Model the fold of this input.
Amino acid sequence: MIREQPISFNTVPMKERLTIQRQSMPEQDPNIRNGNFLEVNLGLTPAQAVLEAQRCIECKKPTCMDGCPVNIKIPDFIQLICNQDFIGAAQKIKEDNSLPAICGRVCPQESQCEEVCVMGRRFEPVAIGRLERFVADYAMNNSNGAADSFQKPEPSSQKVAIVGSGPAGLAVASDLAKEGHAVTIFEALHEFGGVLVYGIPEFRLPKAILRKEVATLEAVGVKFVKNFIVGRTMTIQELMHEEGFDAVFLGLGAGLPRFMNIPGENLNGVYSANEFLTRSNLMRGYDFPEWDTPLYRAKHAIIVGGGNTAMDAVRTAKRLGAEEASIVYRRSEEEMPARNEEIHHAKEEGVKFMNLVNPIEFIGDDQGSVVAARCLRMELGEPDESGRRRPVPMQDSEFIMDVDMVVIAVGNGSNPLISQTTPEIETNKWGNIVADEDGRTSMEGVFAGGDIVSGGATVILAMGAGRKAAIAMNQYLKAKVGSFA
Amino acid sequence: MNLKEQFNSMEMDDILLMCIHQEQQAIELYTLAKNQAKNENSRQKFQELIEMETVHKVALQNFEIEHYIDLPPADLKVTDYLMEPVLSGNMTTQEIIILAAKREDKTAKMYQDLADHFATEKELNTFFQMMADEELRHKHNLETEYENEFLQEG
Ligand SMILES: Cc1cc2nc3c(=O)[nH]c(=O)nc-3n(C[C@H](O)[C@H](O)[C@H](O)COP(=O)(O)OP(=O)(O)OC[C@H]3O[C@@H](n4cnc5c(N)ncnc54)[C@H](O)[C@@H]3O)c2cc1C
Done:
């Protein structure tokens, strides 16, 4: 299908566009921000946003859209920015992405839309993520809800239960509420947002944004129920047969921390990244003693891993007052799955990187507290199927270093609670729920999407899976009514 | 007396019997775990391991050489430093893989010792070397699976 080119509002001649520098986003000074939890990035100014948008060369075949997992109409919203119609631009993004203020902050744009931006072949790519963030924030602060407004539909008389309030669940809720269904979100924790609240720290994603998203959904009639663990408080069968929910969406995430299975992981001072970040973010450990969640201020904190979770944990440890905070990673920096921006920010903030090092034991004192880590140095061997070179231990490379806090950030698995209480729902050998392209599970009326299906992935993919499932759920619900009629 | 010394006082038939016994023990352990396993996925994983060990046992019984021609891949040592989980019915897939990789490693060492022991007897040396390589190949596969699933550090 040939895409219609959006109306151009870019008044800058083509040649001049190439000379405009990519606009850098103002940030807090690294030496100040590593002692506070305020947001690091401060966002583009309106003038910067227009200038950045004017760098777009309006390709006939916009590869940026193919680079986006949910195919946001990037060229269209960029033209609206050129026209200074920031709220219109935000609405354009919202056609495909219900959480732009969040994705603008946390999406790995450098390996998605910006990676394939044609400008990037010779110059720097258009800063699509920064523009997305700018218009989303602008609309949130200036539109009085206009960017989210929609014609209230006729109520459908059908009830939908959404389990989990992460990006997958929120996306489903938004789309099904727009169809007139009565939507209730059940969340195990005492705040809504999934990893966006308990995992990603305030300095990267202010929680106020999420509260606004939740408030927007509440305003359109979505009910939020907290401290409700489906599978324990009530099973899926009970929700459907006793509470009368016509369909259920499972957006449970991958919240079960994985450990390394090496000696000493149960010592005091060794945390899973999940526990550590939850204590800091959700239980406001960083506000101690205002909030009663003590978190240890370490002399030397090591964080094992190289993903976004590890970066979030190490930067949190630094902000909590660790004298030294280090990343310990089995591979080299090139193989790190964390976003480049996070690695760059962590380094600026004084985080040390010990790459090609693998802990094999944590050593405790007689009180049972961790005091040291026994490690091996690694070297890179043959590449694996994905092309990442595999780390192998170097001979006679063992060494011991003093540490008084360890955070394990090697990944998460799925919680077995639902599969244990609802065996009708098929899971794979890793415990992930098996669902088709549209999120249908093996149990009638039950859909699933996000990390619980894919394993740990990204916010935009979880949201995209939620939106696909919402379409299928809407069809299912309509067919159900049809069959009654 | 360690295993290497034991070989000196054993007849070839006894050695083969010992190896078959070793593989049989693994089959029995995995069968026990499979029968106790609380979920279908673990049962499947144990079944795969039983089939793998059965192939080894048959190879020993038939003294088959021609099956194994490839050189073993690099030893990733991913599970070498991990704690050995206790075999039980409610093991996680992660624990099952660690346990199996560690067993493959131990058995590979036994076959390697046997290959070294028969260094001057070409046929036996080749046979045990191939059995050792085969165990290492399985260890490699298990560790690759482990790495792909449990060490993505995402
Ligand atoms: C520390 C960290 C940093 C990350 N950084 C980034 C990043 O920068 N960019 C990016 O794109 N991705 C990032 N990710 C990944 C991203 O956050 C996830 O892929 C995404 O949140 C998955 O969304 P989800 O809706 O599937 O699940 P989640 O966000 O995990 O939400 C699931 C929700 O379900 C609830 N729940 C679970 N079981 C039950 C139950 N039985 N009953 C009721 N409620 C239940 C949970 O409490 C949780 O609130 C990061 C992940 C982590 C852990």
